[in-house]
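Residues determine shape. Take a concrete instance:
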Amino acid sequence: MDKTEDLVAEIEALGQKLDAARQMVGRRIIGQTTVVDQVMQAMLAGGHALLIGLPGLGKTRLVETLSTVMGIRGGRIQFTPDLMPADILGSEVLEEGADGTRAFRFIPGPVFCQLLLADEINRASPRTQSALLQAMQERAVTVAGQEYKLERPFHVLATQNPLEQEGTYPLPEAQLDRFLLQVDVEYPDRDAERDIILATTGAEEAEAEAVFTTEDLIAAQALLRRMPVGENIVELILDVVRACRPDDPSAPKPVQDAIAWGPGPRAAQALMLLTRARALMDGRLAPGVEDVIALAKPVLIHRMALSYAARARGERLGGIIDGVVEGLTRHEAAA
């Protein structure tokens, strides 16, 4: 086989393995197909995901299940108002040896894992939230001037309560940009909720089993980056991201009138990776327009902000992004 045939065979084999992983997760996570798919896409792309929803919708259960199914070591931090950066990163302690000598020893914090659940991340102060910045971007932390590498792969899945709830702090823009996408966790529909209560209140609950290993996941992330992307998809990604910047000449009037600041280059990088991941999970060999349409809002919505006037008018970011994508895809279809 030539290199193209090898790549096709690898993509098809990975697609089958991902389908098995998705079914395994579905044994414990009922009625949240889109949420599961988007979080798995973020992991395939080698990035982090921000899960937003009310308490009790299974966000923590999802992270624990994914840790098992994807074969990586999980960790958990419960964010609270009194949490300090050292509680996340670790700290140095002064120890005295048997001979009376003293030396500092680094005790790693819970960030030293492969899949970190940052639970209710916006309950902690901005200073503590920002302790994750270096870890998310560089896969390393610095304590007392010494850099410590994190084990690969490293993913942060952060859960956030709606900002309208009391006792929450908005995440800094720099940290929001580190998340590949925002996943909105909604209430399940009636049939799904019925299945949930039957599955979780009996004598036994379904258990998850490993489908991937750490090496499998790292190989899948490398394969994803070799997946071809058509020139029309690259141009569409650029068109969508740039049209959401209010000072860009291509921005439509609704964006210019309502958006205070728009997405940076990381948004285009995230959209490029995630469209590949979505195509892969659907068993396709290359991403299409439908992948850009499906992922534009999750990728862009936390990287943009409404102006004060737009908020006063009751406008919504999701509607503006949908309008941008609809206009561009309609134009491409016509062309």
